[in-house]
Amino acid sequence: MRAVQYRTIGDEPEVVTVPTPEPGPGQVRLRVTAAGLCHSDSFVMGLPAEQFGYELPMTLGHEGAGVVDALGAGVTGVAVGDAVAVYGAWGCGLCHACARGAENYCVRAAALGIHPPGLGAPGALAEHLLVDDDQHLVALGDLDPVASVSLTDAGLTPYHAITASRPWLPAGSTAVVIGVGGLGHVAVQILRAVTGATVVALDVAEDKLRLATEMGAHHVLPSDEQAAAAIRRLTGGVGAQAVFDVVGVPATLEIARQAVAVDGVVQIVGIGGGVLPTGFFSTPFGAWVRAPYWGTRAELMEVLDLARAGAVHVEVEQYSLDEAPVAYRKLHDGTIRGRAVVVP
Ligand SMILES: NC(=O)c1ccc[n+]([C@@H]2O[C@H](COP(=O)([O-])OP(=O)(O)OC[C@H]3O[C@@H](n4cnc5c(N)ncnc54)[C@H](O)[C@@H]3O)[C@@H](O)[C@H]2O)c1
Ligand SMILES: [Zn+2]
Ligand SMILES: [Zn+2]
User: Fold this and answer.
1) Which of 99, 178, 227, 270 has the CA that lies 20 to 30 A from 244?
2) Runs of H (alpha helix) within 130-195
3) Tens digits of per-residue pLDDT, 170-179?
4) What's the gap in Å between 210 CA and the centre of ligand 2?
5) Helices (H) and strands (E) in the chain, counts
6) Ligand 1 atom closest to 42 (CA)
7) For ligand 1, what atom is nearest to the CA of residue 183?
């Protein structure tokens, strides 16, 4: 089968032919119907050799959807022909976090060498994908795989951060989203769907600010040195009860630090290499700072239900497997509108 692999540190990913995998006991094989491209892939492919923690070659793609096309011994939870989305934050299934469905916070995955597909395990940017357990599949039902595949990360990750912030976001509150890319444009919609907050979106690109307005942001602002003061003005000097930094570079974390309200919350979603010092001489009194990772299995089901209800969608740019390297270049350059999705 054909697959998109990152093969050599510093090089672009390549489209190669690899053996079609056979499902072992407990595993499920999918015929991939859609796979999303995430900025985290760009981040990983930008790491120097000494910081690169995966084995090469690595088949990319941690947002996957497909149709079940082969079952390993003992699998009874799904049947050949089922349309499914992949929950990618694979855990051990046995620890306290996994028992709650929060496999994204599994305490044993690293020690057991369990990796998400596309981030260590062979990923969804291929004609077929092996899923290690049928519990890592969620029925798509009548949802279109191309339109919904990115809900498994670009939807789930902001949904997880926003769900944890809901006590901060009653009617009359203000939520800030910094970075209106794949995750950010869905974050704006989720905030509108599940909270009473006024939504302020920031980006460095004019077209992304227009996208934010289309997605339901009440206010948009350029992401610059004046942004925090502008947010203070919009909130009568109080600041934002929740800031979702979906970029995570020093400049955006500085905006978050200056814009968050007393006793507010900063969720650092973006993996931009920045850190936000927290304490009496940095963040406001009582402010909470957190770096959430991906989301829980139950939250993935909830995000898919939000899409079924018509409350959130993903703006998709569609590519073929052969075009995946070009799509990654566009993602790196910041010129994708919404999410790039590959259809093998
Ligand atoms: N925490 C997690 O579990 C998790 C999951 C998925 C992705 N991520 C991370 O989230 C981030 C966003 O991923 P994505 O796939 O949505 O990326 P993307 O490339 O689709 O979007 C990034 C957006 O940020 C904007 N941007 C860049 N610099 C900015 C700045 N200084 N201020 C404001 N906006 C700026 C870009 O114009 C673009 O619109 C990445 O760092 C990615 O690694 C984290
Ligand atoms: Zn991702
Ligand atoms: Zn676990």
Assistant:
1) 99
2) 145-148, 156-164, 182-194
3) 999 999 999 9
4) 23
5) 11, 16
6) 43
7) 16
Q: Residue 106 C-alpha to ligand 3 middle, in angstroms?
A: 4
The ligand 1 site (C-beta within 6 Å) comprises: 38-40, 43, 153, 157, 178-184, 202-205, 208, 223, 246-249, 251-252, 269-272, 292-294, 331, 334, 336
Cβ atoms of 245 and 258 within 8 Å: the answer is no
pLDDT digits (tens, 9 = 90+) for 289-333: 999 999 999 999 999 999 999 999 999 999 999 999 999 999 999
Pocket test for ligand 1, best of 39, 190, 206 (most atoms within 8 A of CB): 39
Q: Cα separation of 188 and 177, whole Å? A: 7
State the residue for tokens 């859609």: 34
Spatial separation of the C-alpha atoms in residues 209 and 179, rounded to whole Å: 9
